[in-house]
């Protein structure tokens, strides 16, 4: 079994911390993992992506082949669409619905929504609004991870939840609790879709 | 053995520490920076007092590294591919002097130019210098090749070039690592002026010996630990010669398993005997290599004139850009199917200078003044401030290499351009700008140099900058007149002062230096966060 995930967003949004949490869970579960990251110039507010590959067997390439990704997990809606050519025909798109508009020609909201409607498997969650509503401004990425948990077949929800405790463990119990609550909120939000 | 999740860069760093290095010498450059940063943070490296502070540039790094080797220590020098151009004089000649303690020069190439100005392939430098070259395909191989590389270097008395590409440098995987490190290597210091003084008489002798050593290096490549030939059971199939991470993309095509003769190459000079065997047992050869067509250009010389060799030169793989699993699968006849198109709404999102960055205020001021001089040209340099080329600023006219802002401005001024303005960052100035400034001072060139000082090497993530607190003294020492070294604080509230000083110095008929100085917003925020965290605990 394998799970190829494209993580995407805008430089500075924190896609690598999502990768860290999934990676930690995968390592604990004894899975093989490869994760290609983007460092350098593009981190300055440009589009960023990371290829995260999990498998119970060997993984050859650090990069995901077009048409084979099982999931696009994105902190920004337009950035989710950018990687559609990589998605396999049964793949899932899990994305934040809050646009990050730092360019003058950002597409029309309705046009983006129309694009999402053409996809067979998509979950959009307004993680920014949820984070604000629950007074956890730094937890948008964990909410998104919670929303993805149901569809990340290779890892159980419990395994992911436990990895949050380990990743945030050094920051104290309150931080762990808040992030697990964020994870649960995301998980619940993905149910109704 | 213990398993660790490591970037390719980190695997190299840990491999070097475990192989008993005395230190690392480097200048930051994507995608190589994390090698040195890992060593800077590593507890054992700290305990052992291994050298890991940043060097002024790649040339000083390679020279200092060779000094460590001379003294009997093991050492690495790290840089990005274009950094090797800066270090080339030292690098190429180090193959003639040879080494004492093991020395590995690690160069990270950036095919597709994710963060670079070109996609030159460092393997050409290895061949040019007649040096052994290692090219790992995985993070594990990168780790293992450090000990192997040092042994190779010490046995052959030659520096070794390790060439990696961005995808290996910046990709994470589990690596099995040793639990104990070798003692820090301490061979007796070299003492052989005839071997180390490159006077023509010595060089001729040493160069002839280096040429004579080549067949042996080729033999070593044949038995390199990760180089291997995987023959297919089929009769005369297509053969694939895969270098470094190219091998991974070939293996990724599951439908093709066993259908090709596959030769994996991880060490150069190319193992001729294996290449000839691959050719004899295959009907044609497809060369899969990341970067430029290096092996593809060489192997026809090993084979009969009409033997078909395919790759980047024949268009079977794209001539430019990094390899991808898609392009390799397609070249092997297994084009991947795509199910969803890129929606037409998706537009590009280029990187930009951070909000609150001092470079922004520098460009705002510069644009206002430059408007008054329709013939003005702004010669810029390598760093975050190169982003001043993009909207909304569109403030710069050139960017060539590290340091070229000052020297191109000087040449243009010599040829009559006025105003000729150079924009250079603090770290780039000490890397390669200082010598050019001396040229300008000696010729009393009419140029205005802006050293936009944010107290760090920001583009690569905020490393220490060699000239911090020394810029006025450096400029004065090089002969810039004291009244034409001006320091300003780039903030919107100081706009009037900055533009006035720019106008005054543009009109001065000689070299003037303006230093807008304000800390990088990224490193400042990081420090504030750290302080806050310290207060809490």
Task: Provide structural commentary.
The complex is a heterodimer of chains A (193) and B (537). In chain A, helix 2 links the parallel strand 4 (69-74) and strand 5 (87-96). The mean pLDDT of chain A is 93. In chain A, 40% of the residues lie in helices and 22% in strands. In chain A, helix 4 (127-133) crosses helix 5 and helix 6 packs antiparallel against helix 7 (173-191). Chain A has a single domain (2-191), classed as Pyruvate-ferredoxin Oxidoreductase, domain 3, CATH 3.40.920.10. The longest helix of chain A has 19 residues, at 173-191. Chain A is globular, with a radius of gyration of 16 Å. Chain A is an alpha/beta fold. Chain A has a 6-stranded mixed sheet with strand order 2-3-1-4-5-6. Chain A is built from 7 helices and 6 strands, in the order E-H-E-E-E-H-E-H-E-H-H-H-H. Chain B is an alpha/beta fold. Chain B has 3 domains: 2-222, Thiamin diphosphate (ThDP)-binding fold, Pyr/PP domains (Rossmann fold); 231-331, Rossmann fold; 358-523, 3-Layer(aba) Sandwich (Rossmann fold). Chain B is 41% helix and 16% strand. Chain B contains 20 helices and 18 strands. The longest helix of chain B has 23 residues, at 200-222. Chains A and B meet through strand 2, helix 2, strand 5 and helix 3 of A and strand 7, helix 11 and helix 14 of B.
